[in-house]
Task: inverse folding
């Protein structure tokens, strides 16, 4: 097959009865993950700062028969995590899977980076992961198969021009995922990171269209020679969050068309 499948035909029902929380669910990888988990029977709790896009995603999933709950949320704010997790506790009593997906990138040389821009990115891309772990793990303790998938990036595994804050944050996500996996393995909570390569999301496509990043630079070192579709990343997230991956924890898995194989 030369490219990704566009639909999940006859999806297995690995997530029937499972309560899943996906941050950044309105667009891109988060949206694709919400669709994939919903197709496998999950109750999807989606959060995002973009209320209108989140509502549109939820409506599409609900029209397909999925159970969807949404919360407008800024993952960098502890009060938002407290509010959302309290609602999950009240509505469901537990959480089975956390997908810590929300994040963004910013293109600049390190000498040109404004301190406030660096902090804003790290507040979302790394602090947001920490807050998700802190407030979701107590809910995950109520699950019989608890799992966490944190979204990192190949840019946390390798260098790439002009994204120092993003690379540093995603490297931190990988290290944090491994460390937390060790701490909570005795409780049966699995923690893994997914490291996507160049993925054709609205955000990254917009950066390319703006001229801030050359498309040939993004995929020039990808042996498969193309972008990933968000659905291809979502399929790996769905696997890691399921019991099919019951003996995998502390891993950082590249989904990158061979980019990091060099």
Result:
């Amino acid at each position: 097959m030369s490219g990704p499948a566009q639909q999940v035909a006859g999806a297995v029902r690995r997530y029937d009865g499972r309560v899943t929380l996906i941050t950044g669910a309105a667009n891109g990888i988060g949206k694709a993950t919400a669709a994939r988990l919903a197709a496998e029977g999950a109750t999807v709790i989606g959060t995002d700062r973009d209320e209108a896009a989140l509502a549109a995603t939820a409506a599409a999933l609900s029209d397909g028969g999925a159970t969807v709950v949404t919360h407008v949320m800024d993952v960098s704010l502890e009060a938002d995590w407290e509010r959302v997790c309290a609602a999950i506790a009240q509505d469901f009593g537990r959480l089975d899977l956390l997908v810590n997906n929300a994040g963004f990138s910013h293109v600049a040389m390190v000498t040109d980076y404004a301190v406030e821009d660096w902090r804003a990115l790290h507040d979302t891309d790394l602090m947001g992961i920490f807050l998700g772990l802190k407030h979701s793990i107590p809910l995950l303790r109520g699950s019989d198969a608890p799992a966490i998938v944190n979204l990192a990036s190949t840019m946390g595994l390798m260098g790439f021009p002009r994204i120092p804050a993003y690379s540093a944050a995603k490297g931190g996500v990988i290290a944090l995922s491994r460390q937390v996996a060790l701490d909570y393995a005795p409780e049966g909570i699995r923690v893994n990171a997914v490291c996507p390569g160049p993925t054709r999301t609205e955000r990254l496509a917009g950066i390319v269209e703006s001229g801030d990043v050359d498309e040939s630079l993004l995929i020039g070192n990808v042996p498969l020679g193309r972008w990933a579709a968000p659905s291809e990343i979502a399929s790996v997230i769905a696997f890691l969050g399921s019991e099919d991956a019951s003996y995998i924890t502390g891993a950082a898995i590249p989904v990158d068309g061979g980019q990091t194989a060099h």
Observations:
- The chain has one domain: 19-257.
- Residues 115-140 form the longest helix (26 residues).
- The beta strands are 19-23, 43-48, 67-72, 97-100, 147-151, 190-196, 252-255.
